[in-house]
Each structure stands twice: as structure tokens, then as C-alpha cells.
Amino acid sequence: MAKIWVEAYGCSASFADSEMISGLILNGGHTLAQNSSDSDLNLVVTCSVKDATANKMINRIKSLKHKPLVVAGCLPKAERTTVEKFSPNASLLGPNSIGQTLQVINSTLKGKRRVELADSDLSKVGLPKVRLNPVVGIVEVASGCMSECTFCQTKLSKGDLRSYRIGDIVRQVRSEIDEGCKEIWLTSTDNGCYGLDIGTDLPTLITEVVQIEHDFLIRVGMMNPMYMPRIRDNLLKAFENDKVLKFLHIPVQSGSNAVLKEMKRGHTADVFKITSEKFRKKFENFAISTDIIVGFPSESEDDFQQTVRLIEETKPDIINLSRYSARPGTKAAEMKQIRVSEVKRRTKIIFELAKKVAYERNKKWIGWIGEVFFDESSNGIVKGRNFAYKPVVVKENVRLGEKIKVEITDATKHVLYGKTLS
Fold first, then answer.
1. Across-strand partners of 405?
2. Model's pTM, two decimal places?
3. How far separated are the first and last CA of the chain, in Å rounded?
4. What domains lie within the chain, and their CATH numbers?
5. In angstroms, rounded to a whole number, what is the distance separating the alpha carbons of residues 220 and 399?
6. Which of 347, 262, 348, 352 shows the shortest CA–CA distance to 299?
């Protein structure tokens, strides 16, 4: 029996993978260490979506390699040679190879490096897990995607779409709720294409999950806009249920159709615009989160200004902003790159605009009274979310997992502040 330290980076799917890896470790007779210095073996679930993230992963791998180490997640699958360059003795575990977790760990503990990067046919639904948050259940509904974005490494890491069956997902959600979870995250590489490989779709999945007879909330994870025309009307109907948080993460990436075509995104800026309008028209105070990439190789000044105008028109509540960085193995990495100074200039403009829009959107919540579910604890502060998944902080002492009536009294670009009402 050994003490294993597990840490994760990146998207909610990566954190879900780390929960399952921890569950398999305990089932295999090992224990979980409290920190990396107290462990017999370290395991890091990596992300490789951006240059800055990959560099952070490399630094962390270098700092952990003085003990037996397993590098899991997207980075070893997408950039195996990079991982091996900085930690040649580390064992490797791919994002779709979780079924080999114990074999890789046990081999590494014996001093024998093992590499398991091939995709297995193991479903990630129903595996044992150790939750990072006792009140939030992260349920992966699929692996891989159907996109071929020229800037993205995710396809290299996770492969083609493989949706899990609705019945299995519903059973997993029930299990999460039975074990104390009050908020369920339906997550995958791209929720928008869920089910298209097995004859179903995301609205159908949500409609089945909300029928579970318990008091819980559902956060629907990221979906690419290209699938919206196909599922939008049924998705609007599925979102009518009070269990579904009124929040969408739909990454547009650019306001220019020319750039979107070069990115091979499969959608136009209008698809994002129309989707935002329809959800906000149907549901009051609906929150929209999106992603913007600034400085894609083919982005002209006019293309950039189209992105600025799209943000001004649609006013997303959250903008996840990235400076374009060439990722190894992607088609965009082979294109002529824009000057770094120009990319920085454009990034600063979007950054300032995003701050302004976020504050405008949050300011509208001042005076709102309603229930807040407190679902996150960090550095002694318990943070909650309202029906639109807006982060809320109150001065009063509250406990994780409580649902309390709150009045919003102030707002910043990042958070709403309120007071509890008895």
C-alpha cells in the first residue's frame, strides 16, 4: 500500500478524471496523500489547451519528478515528447486510458516506467470517485468531439466523440445525489455534440436528468455554437425546468466569419448572436459565457474590430480571453503568425471591454432577492451561485451546501455581494 498524491488542472472534465483516478486508487488498496511531499508517488492530471498552460504543466512536472511520477491527462497524449524531454522516467496515462490507472501506478512504484496512452472502450460513467467538492457532482457525458479546429490540441488528446448512454448517465446522477451532491455538472469536451453518435442529443439528456425526483441543480457545460441551429429550440425548452441553471458557455472565439472559417469552427458569428438573444429573451437575466481568441494568424484589424462589435452587441457576462498561441501538431501553428506586440495590443482592448461589460451585467443584479446555493469554499470564504450561476458572496457565516435567501447589495466585475435574509 502506498500514499498517492493526485492534482489536476484545466477544464471540469480534467477534474472529473482526477476524481475517478482517486477513486480507483482507493479501490486498489492505496491511500491518498495530503500533499506531494508526503507521498510515495505523485500523479498530475494535465491540460495542454494553451501555451501558458502547457508551460505551467511542464514546470509542475519538473518540480514533481524527484519522486515516482505519473503524468496523466491531455499533455502526454498531445505532446508526449515534451513530457519525456523534461521527465524521461515518468509514466504516462492518457485521458481515455483511466482504466489502466492501477497498472500504471503499481508498475511505477516498482521502478518500472509504463506508458498507457491508447483510447480504451471503458466508459467514464459509474467509476468510483473521490469528490473534490462534496456538494458538486461532476458527471462526464462523453469523451472526444466532432470538431477539427485548426488551433486546438483537444482532438489530438481526446479523439472522436464517444457519447455515454443516457440511462447510464441518469444512474450516475442519481448516485451523486444519493451521496450528498446538490449541484450536478454535465460536462464533456463539447456538450453541443453529445449524442449525435448514438442517435440522441443534449436536450433529450437534460430532459431525462431533470425527471430525477430530488432537489438539485444542473449546470450544463460548454457547447460549441456550431450545433446550436440543430438543438437550440429543444434546448430552450429543456432549460425551462427550474433545476437547470440559466447559464450557457458557448465559445464564439471570433466575431469575424473569415477568421472562424480559417479556424474551422463550423459556425458564424450570427449563430452565437442569435443564440444569446433567444435565451435572454426567453429567460430573464440569463448568463452567457464565451471564449475569445485574439491574434489568430489570419486575423486582420477589420476582423478584430468585428470581434469588438460582437462583444458590444451581445454583452457576454463572462469572456474567457486568450492570446493566440501556436500549439504543436495543429494546422494554425503552420500559418504565418501575427507580431506579438500587435497581439498584446488587441488583447488589452478586449480585456478592458470585457471588464466593462462584466461590470455592467453584474450591476443590474443589485436589489435582486432570491435563493443562493452555496457550493464553493476557498480560503475560508464560502461562495454561492444564484439561478443564473452568478457568484455571490455574503458577510454572514454560511455553510457549504446551504441554500439561503439573499439580497444583492453590491457588485464588481467578478462577483455579486449580498446579505442573507431570515
1. 371
2. 0.88
3. 50
4. 3-116 (3.40.50.12160), 369-420 (2.40.50.140)
5. 24
6. 262
Beta strands in 128-237 (DSSP E): 136-140, 142-143, 162-163, 183-187, 217-220
Cell triple for 17: 478524471
Run of H or E including 291:
strand 287-294
Contact yes or no for 18/45 (Cβ under 8 A): yes
Residues 6+ apart with CB under 8 A from 327: 48, 49, 50, 51, 54, 78, 151, 152, 153, 333
75 versus 185: which is more confidently predicted?
A: 185
Chain centre to alpha carbon of residue 116 = 24
What is the sign, positive or negative, of the torsion defined by CA atoms of 142, 374, 250, 237? positive
Any idea what DSSP says for residue 258? H
Q: Which of 121-135, 202-216, 393-407 has the weakest average pLDDT?
A: 121-135
Dist. CA 190–CA 36, nearest whole Å: 32
- What local confidence, expressed as pLDDT, does residue 325 receive? 76
Q: Which of 248, 253, 166 is nearest to 212 (CA)?
A: 166
Residue 162 C-alpha from the chain's centroid? 17
Q: Which three cell numbers stand for residue 202?
A: 443534449
Residue 334 has pLDDT above 80, yes or no: no
pLDDT tens string 46-57: 987 666 777 888
Distance between CA atoms of residues 376 and 371, nearest Å: 15
Residue labelled with grid coordinates 481526446? 158
Number of H helices, E strands in the chain: 13, 19
**Residue 153 pLDDT grade (very low, low, confident, very high; cuts 50, 70, 90):** low
Computed over every residue of the chain, the mean pLDDT equals 92
Strands 142-143 and 41-46: unpaired
Which of 84-88, 199-203, 325-329, 409-413 bottoms out in mean pLDDT, i.e. has the lowest? 325-329
d(CA 392, CA 416): 5
pLDDT tier, 348 (very low <50, low <70, confident <90, very high otherwise): very high
